[in-house]
């Protein structure tokens, strides 16, 4: 049986406001328990919610960035259920009328471009945290401690259509979404701190079937690796279950990273009825077209627009443009390099950033914003290749030296200090070639006998004699001329 | 020693205080004594002498330094639904038996800043659910006119305290009639202003789209500074209004509107209310209305006519539907508002439980009384999947129809609506306990006003019952933001009558 | 439309209430009576009428007011403890509850 996996993702992104969505408590991470939980956050009798403009603005930015419709009127609704980390025992969320509707996100999976349609995005409040250390309650019972510092942090819940067909695609989407919200500055993207959490809805069906299979929801995946593994496990589990004659039960599951498996959450007699109704404490949220335009005007250039510009104006490939626009810092870096180079050298800049620079950053576990090689310095290095001062091969050595901080990271100083200037003087090269030809008559004979590899060998010898610094094109040209004469 | 009972109005006491004939401290001391000595121990839920005297001292300082206002030094008390620092706030429930709020309600702040001296917290129906103040955890409050009878609810403690002369003003909340109805049954004046004019921040929420703070006192004239000073925009309450049809929602607005209306009436001379059209809804005079209440209301209307007003027959065709609509919407919102009481962060926690879910359900079931549990179940039902549209949304549609009825009548047919507050005089404590909806049916004249968010008042207009000593109230319903004019109209009536000056014989 | 025992049990669970069997019987009776009252609503023709969530909606458009994103300073541990004075089971600044095993 050929199975198709169907995946939809729901992502909760904590918005980067300084105060909470419905109260003015600080959202700063890491404070002492319950020191950032005021009367509203603790749901004390008589407390009421008041809306944070910053949360709305960030939702508008997101809606614009994905080409969605920003609802002129949206409504906050109460989602009612009992849980100790939910102080009111209802969550203020949005149900029938969310602030953002539709939209799409494009990204690459390998060399292939994919587009995922988004259903909606809405604002809601985060819950507090349960600490499951071994506390003892007033009657000696095993207890958890509730910290409400996080309760009330603004969340943007972003929901996709069930458009994804593989774990790899889901991860690529999640990475692209992560990159976008960080790009916009609306979310800090810190997954260890819980700023970006994904729930995956997974189902399977025989390929060709139009009806969806029964889906399971895997909650609270806070790393891309877990997301991928959890989806893979779940798809396999469902397929095996069906092939064994069983039926998938719609349920919520958790991913156990230690065992690499998904597990059903504690069962309930029947599914919760959240009894959504419009929150009577909060009138409808109105977002005027004027406000949307103001937000649009103040937004940074979006990844999609930058990508298009890199392709059209700077001649980059779709893939390279996409890679360079995954993170704003990378795109900014690239543009700084390209701007410092003569026209037409953008491709070189792209290659260096996606190649050497990327490798060095990964190796040293650095973010591009912490790169020891600045865009201006990298541009200077590339310029030396373009003007023939050094070859690409030598440039890699210079780059390594720049990275290590030699000669203050100045490429010209390094080239001088190490004497790496490419030899481009025709006379000098000729002399070297003559010497090599004289020293290796056997190889010359091989070449004359028709072995092309001998030519490369001779080139190698010339380069060795030149300590790698001979201009390769000139070596090639002069050697060819000499051998053919 | 000067006694509070020597002063029958805020105006009279205020003058004496400002003339330094009596001190706020002396008065507060007497008021505390009287409150503690009062025959019904259930009226006050918490009295703390030192907290009260501290406020009295502050009032005396203001009086001495010439910064006193109309309410400085006036003894008042707050319904135990307004959170207070210092005094416990229990909502008359076992659930909050020992709760002390770390912050004061906006209304409490406003009255304190105006210089009032609070005698403590007044009983009410538990979490504001009830029309008889029988649903209080510590026991029923008795009507000062007849201790075998209810004072009304849910602000029964507030109405009784005013009627008994223990305070000159009391705060209350009115969600479906809970200020107007007890005011009527206790023979005092009470007002529920337009929804959104008084902050709900610090009011223990029952039904958010209906709850509104109000005031009770001996007369409309006393209500003016009480309501005026409790009003005002509050950014912490997202349903609080910044403006009222263009006028800023601050202290001063109601006073100014009252003064302007009075000036207009003054100009009318012998017929101060000439030109005023009073709408009398025929549906309020249905078969449920007792003859004696009908007769008292009729007499009151005649007084208004004698002052120059014209009566207009109007129709509020959906009056009866206010009952089911209210008893869907209010329980629905309440069921959600009361979910926070789970024994986790505050409030009653059960002594024994097997696990978290058990702790929650036991704490709630032990903490909440019958009526509260009943309304939570109803609320959960009408919001649940499959019923939401047929009940909750349908009720909200009917609500709009009711509001539009009032709009139509008040825009094009009359300037104010008048009618009964309750179908009968106060019933006996303990009656109606077998039928969960019996009391609900008695709310028929007050619910629609709450659903529409309009201002409503109750003023004494007569007596009834076998003894002939059970108060009857007249309801006045105004246009949005018209509370100042309503108070002026009520005052005109009270200048021409003396029902509001009658005092129960019981001490 | 009569409620069943399961209906009551479900309502109790969703409401976070514990009803023993006599409570449940009484609740059934009472709710049936109440539903009889509110069922009147279903017969009303409300075609074309929008539900009204805010009481002044017929008079003016009430919309959500927005606040500036200005945080309050965090509390000190002493202030926090004072704010938690009503907690039934406070411990090291946390609210203790029986552990839920997932």
Provide the β-strand percentage band of chain B.
5-15%
Could you state the order of secondary-structure elements of chain B as H and E? HHEHEHEHEHEEHEEHEHEHHHHEHHEEH
Q: What separation lies between the terminal Cα atoms of chain B?
A: 18 Å
Largest sheet: spatial strand order of chain C = 2-3
| Structural class designation of chain C | alpha+beta
Helix content of chain C: 25-40%
Radius of gyration of chain B: 21 Å
**Overall mean confidence score, pLDDT of chain B:** 97
User: Within the largest sheet of chain B, what's the order of strands?
Assistant: 1-3-2-4-6-5-12-13-11-9-10
What percent of residues of chain B adopt helix (DSSP H or I)? 25-40%
Terminal-residue CA separation of chain C: 38 Å
Shape, per Cα inertia axes of chain B: globular
Number of strands of chain C: 3
Largest sheet of chain C: 2 strands, antiparallel
CATH architecture title of the domain at 4-268 in chain B: Alpha-Beta Complex
- Give the quaternary arrangement of the chains: heterotrimer
Structure in words:
By secondary structure, chain A is an alpha+beta fold. Helices cover 39% and strands 21% of the residues of chain A. In chain A, strands 1, 3, 7, 8, 9, 12, 13, 14, 15 and 16 form a ten-stranded mixed sheet that branches. In chain A, strands 6-5-17 form a three-stranded antiparallel sheet, with no helix packed on it. In chain A, strands 4-18 form a two-stranded antiparallel ribbon. In chain A, helix 6 (318-324) packs across helix 8, helix 7 (328-340) crosses helix 8 (346-363) and helix 7 (328-340) crosses helix 9. The model of chain A has no long low-confidence stretch (mean pLDDT 93). Chain B is 38% helix and 13% strand. Chain B contains 16 helices and 13 strands. Chain C is an alpha+beta fold and 102 residues long. Chain C has a domain at 5-43. Chain C has a two-stranded antiparallel sheet with strand order 2-3. Chains in contact: A-B, A-C, B-C. Chains B and C meet through helix 10, helix 11, helix 12, helix 13 and helix 15 of B and helix 1, helix 2 and strand 3 of C. Strand 11 (142-147) of chain A pairs antiparallel with strand 3 of chain C.
